[in-house]
Hints:
Blueprint: E1 4-9, H1 16-30, E2 36-41, H2 47-57, E3 62-65, H3 82-87, E4 92-95, H4 98-104, H5 108-120, E5 124-129, H6 133-137, H7 141-152, H8 158-161, E6 165-168, H9 182-199, H10 202-207, E7 209-213, H11 221-225, E8 232-235, H12 242-251
Parallel strand pairs: 1-2, 1-8, 2-3, 3-4, 4-5, 5-6, 6-7, 7-8
Amino acid sequence: MRKGIIAGNWKMNLTPDESVSLVEEVWERIANLDRVEVVVCPPFISIPRVRELLDSRKMRIHLGAQNMHWEESGAYTGEISPVMLKFYGVTHVIIGHSERRQYFGETDQAVNRKVLSALFHDLTPIMCVGESLKERESGHTKDVVVTQVKRGLFEVPGNLARRVIIAYEPVWAIGTGKAASGGDAQDVAHLIREVLTELYNEEISEEVRIQYGGSVSPDNISDFMSMPDIDGALVGGASIKSESFAELVRLA
């Protein structure tokens, strides 16, 4: 049985001090909950302080990063490598978020290289896929999602594909307050499982966890979690408020 997973993407928010305070406040509310895996993804500069806190308090919270380069080192100004993330005990990394694709020109090929590198370095990739509003309105959701999944997992062997988490994040729902319905998200999650079955087999397809992301809140999380192919959420704005993020974990 797949274990639920709630991951918080803090984006470009919170100083190291604020990050530590947020994790402490969240932990106070979820310390007695252990049926759902919890991941926090702070900005890079906050990772060392958050890691220190998690270790010192023995918190059952995983530490993630919001991005990484596929190379271990080199002349890539402004980037961070998987080796650097591993040094600070990072276990998960968001790859291919729509904001990276939209604002920084990240391609499916780049996503694929990052996924392969993350797996090689024993990091768990949270690979994001999703269609824009224009693509949705023109009826191309299926084509976009299928293409992104196939290209993102290109040459990823089955034994490693089991470890990938796929986050379905419709671009039109991110930060807009407009979430997909549970049924719509389920349709795409089921489609993703069909693609995984085609690429690998049904066993691997059933092992891979699929999240929904896009204006997730305590008001709608139960709708998504009740769907058979949705195993959790990749949360944006609600993850930098301790009360709402803790409530999401509790409801999940």
